[in-house]
Write a structure and sequence with these properties.
Elements (H helix, E strand, L loop, with lengths): L15 H16 L8 H30 L3 E5 L3 E2 L4 H7 L3 H10 L4 H5 L6 E2 L3 H15 L4 E6 L7 E5 L2 E5 L11 E3 L5 E5 L2 E5 L2 E5 L2 E13 L6 E10 L7 H5 L3 H4 L1 H7 L16 H25 L6 H4 E6 L6 H12 L4 H11 E4 L10 E3 H7 L1 H21 L4 H7 L2 E2 L5 E3 H7 L3 E4 L2 H11 L1 H6 L4 E3 L6 H7 L2 H11 L21 H26 L8 E6 L8 H17 L7 E6 L7 H18 L8 E5 L5 H7 L5 E4 L11 H7 L3 E4 L5 H8 L4 E3 L4 H9 L4 H7 L1 H11 L8 H8 L6 H19 L2 H13 L6 H13 L10
Parallel strand pairs: 1-4, 1-13, 4-12, 13-14, 14-18, 18-19, 20-21, 20-23, 21-22, 23-24, 24-25
Antiparallel strand pairs: 2-3, 5-6, 7-11, 8-11, 9-10, 11-12, 15-17, 16-17
The structure holds N-(phenylcarbonyl)-beta-D-glucopyranosylamine (OAK).
Length: about 800
Amino acid sequence: MEQPNGPALRAIGTTAAEFERDLVSNLYFERGTTMESASAQDVYQSLAVTVRDRLVDRRARTATAHQAANPRCVYYLSAEYMLGRQLRQNLQYTGTEEVARDVLKGLGVSLDEIADFDVEPSLGNGGLGRLAACLLDALATADIPAVGYGIRYDLGLFRQAIVDGAQVERPDDWAFDGSPWEFPQQDDRQAVGFYGRVEVEAGRRRWIPEETVLGEPSHMLVPGYGTQTVNIVRLWRARADSDAFNLADFAAGRSAEAVQEVLRSENISKVLYPADSTEFGRELRLKQQYFLVSCSLWDIVRRFHLRNSDWTVFADKTVIQLNDTHPALAVPELMRLLVDEYELDWDTAWSITRRTFAYTCHTLLPEALETWPVALFERLLPRHLEIVYAINQTHLDEVESRFPGDGDLRRRLSLIQEEPERRIRMAHLAVVGSHAVNGVAELHSRLLAETTLADFARLWPERFRNVTNGVSPRRFLRLANPRLAALISERLGGEGWLTDLDQLRGLAALAGDSEFQRRWRVVKRDNKLDLAAYVRAATGVVLDPDALCDVHVKRFHEYKRQLLKLLHVITLHDRLRADPGADVPRTVVFAGKAAPSYHAVKRIIQLINGVAKVVNADPAVAGRLTVVFLPDYNVTRAELIVPAADLSEQISLAGKEASGTGNMKLALNGAVTVGTLDGANIELRDRVGADNFFLFGVDAACAAEVRRGDYRPGEIAGSDPELAAALAAIADGRYGAGFGDVLDTLLGRDEYLTLADYRAYLDAQDAAAAAWRDPARWTAMSIRNTAHCGFFSADRTVADYRDRIWHADPVPVPPR
Ligand code: OAK
């Protein structure tokens, strides 16, 4: 985008008069209406455009500054982005929230009501997608030139409804009413090939695809906070050629046949796959991955050529971060472009490729490590298969020269898995093609190097590093929890902490200050009232704002152990029926989605709802224990729940959660964690202090040991009367008939050691309840959690990537 100049452009101002003029003008020219006859949707759309215009101006200056500086750019490739709602963010980042509120009020409209029309683009499953959004926010805030590339799914992650206690998935047509934050760029379409054959032309191999789909980009603006930089996230949508529609078929009444080709092409970006950490080997998914990679690399090369002509500097100007393995096809695709299209020799191309890519791994679960059947790969991407084979050959030659005669090692390090069928190992491809590989928390990075990627860590130890995740304090404190943000700013004397989160340390001195504590508690209580109002409207359940708000909110997965939390709830219910003082008044909030095909955890959702129904209807525990399952967890819901939480459940089996970022968001908002020594919990506990964290459970080494040994969950159940009673309650059908399958998994293999950790978990919960009984003690713990969370800012994460992987310098954008 060029810097606008000349008198034709009207000034973009921030005064109330300018804002009102633009709003009314947008209403008139964009929506064709006036304030008198505008619908709320009209006002929302015009307001969004008015705010967006303020960012467009910054974006234009950002592009100009980048063009002039010709810097090293960070390209973030991710199949998922969970950006969250944009309106409030952009109002704040442009400093126009108050102006907008006043202007709307003057026009007789409430900003809060209008803001509810803002739709969150849920283009991701969970942690990995939200991390991508937090990193983009921090990149722009740090003035680092960056573009996020992704797929513009027509349907985002399914909307979750609960019907008769069970999860029902509904399509999320997020842009149905129009999406004012997007800039579609139809004229920048890019052709992507599939299938076909490889031909030799003048001694060079060249792919002749059989099918072509168009990738149409649209971008959304990613503003930095407290800076002029506006980066972009560029999302690709699949389009068929305009002559793909078969008029003859249509005229003959064969309407389904007429659109067949259009559908086949456009299906590529139709839906986000809702499989989270499970293998999903379908052709369409591989097509999606190649579609993303092909469009994005074409765009990256185009950008490079805007400012450079010499390939030898490509890796000095470009770093491509692979967000897990979904975009790992970028490695052979860049090789194909360099060797086949730009005719570089193989070794030069390989050196450029390796210097360009870096790879972040987000899991340890073996079932989440992607592999693709060679047969499918060969059919869809015949030239890429040749390139993968060639990369593998050079790679295995290196292995052989370093570790001669070690056939087992060669087999383990090969990009190709041979048994039970030949498959391409995408994590291997990403490691081999990258100069840096990182895990997302210290424990995770260590376990990656010791287990999952141990052979590679032995081969290239210098490539492996850790970059602990972080979250955006702008979104998860300033936007989500304005009351707490205001109190913090008041006490710290300004908003500097928003971009320098370590400043929160200044709150530690106030942890024991009774007046500060009182105000801290008022904020929490007000946030709980907001949550209670929402919960009541959504579910009919009434929450007590004075009860301990105990939250287990995240994707559903057996390793995250929602079931352990539920066993605790069942035991509490039993105890409270016998003794009303057995626990503190408590509200347990569950929220999260289960992959539609993940039957075992969908059953756990049903069981939670069954338990909630029984507990909430029992007068014997009224006012003591309330259980709610809040449907459709997403970024927007998180922004409501996180500020209200007192107790943060981070209870995954040690060694399974790569990092977790909900743990950080909750602690930042003053929730105290009850957690295992897993993922980033360990670093969180180190920072907030062992006294301000309820630790329990086996550690990762011990968990592995237990799993290897003779673990007998049945014996644990038999020797613990409270546990036996909880299991019996599930078995007797009071929460709904037929939860035998859930019991069988627990009493059979109990893969995630739920029963092994049950007693320690209950003890930790009792300790939490004892602390809650003393409000001064609890509030001090809560304040200390916030005070020591500075490390978990995404700004620190980005600074780590910048210094240790990207080596990208900031490019400040001058103000107008
Ligand atoms: C999704 C698909 C494949 C592999 C990993 C994921 C994923 O979402 N992983 C999650 O990434 C988060 C961000 O790094 C971590 O905090 C979570 O622990 C991890 O499960």
